[in-house]
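Reminder to self: C-alpha cells first, then the designed residues, so the page reads top to bottom the way the pipeline ran.
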C-alpha cells in the first residue's frame, strides 16, 4: 500500500516533466519552420512529418502528464521519444568543437536521465492525484 505522500511526490514529478515538454512543444509550434529546418540540418528523414510528430508528442504528452492520463503507456512512449531525441539532437560524437561537444554530452545524458524518470512513472503509475486513479474501479470489501 502506498503512503499518502507518495501521490504528492508522483504528482510533482509529473508536473516537473510536463513543464519541460509543454514549453518545448509550444516553442516548436511557434517557430515551426525553424524546427523543420533544424531537423533537416540534422539529417532527419521527412523533417516536416518528424516536426509534426515531435510537436504533438511534446504537447499531448505534457498535457497527459499534468492530468495523469494513461501514464503507464505514456511513460514508455515518452522514454523512447526522449532517447531518440538524445541520439538525433545531441549527437556529441559528431561534434569537433570541444565546448559545443561538452554541452552536447551534458544534454545527451540529461535526456537519458529524463527517460529514466519516465520509466519510473511507467512502473509507479500516475498516483492518486490523477485521471488514471479516478478511472480505476475501487475495491469493495465484502
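Designed residues (142 positions):
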Amino acid at each position: 500500500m502506498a503512503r499518502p505522500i507518495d501521490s504528492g511526490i508522483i504528482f510533482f514529478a509529473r508536473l516537473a516533466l510536463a513543464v519541460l515538454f509543454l514549453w518545448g512543444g509550444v516553442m516548436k509550434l511557434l517557430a515551426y519552420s525553424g524546427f523543420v529546418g533544424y531537423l533537416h540540418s540534422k539529417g532527419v528523414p521527412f523533417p516536416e512529418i518528424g516536426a509534426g510528430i515531435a510537436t504533438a508528442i511534446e504537447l499531448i504528452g505534457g498535457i497527459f502528464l499534468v492530468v495523469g492520463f494513461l501514464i503507464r503507456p505514456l511513460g514508455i512512449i515518452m522514454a523512447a521519444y526522449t532517447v531518440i531525441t538524445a541520439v538525433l539532437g545531441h549527437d556529441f560524437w559528431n561534434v569537433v568543437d570541444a565546448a559545443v561537444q561538452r554541452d552536447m554530452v551534458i544534454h545527451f545524458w540529461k535526456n537519458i536521465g529524463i527517460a529514466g524518470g519516465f520509466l519510473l512513472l511507467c512502473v509507479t503509475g500516475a498516483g492518486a492525484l490523477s485521471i488514471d486513479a479516478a478511472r480505476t474501479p475501487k475495491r469493495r470489501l465484502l
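The CA atoms of residues 6 and 79 lie 21 Å apart.
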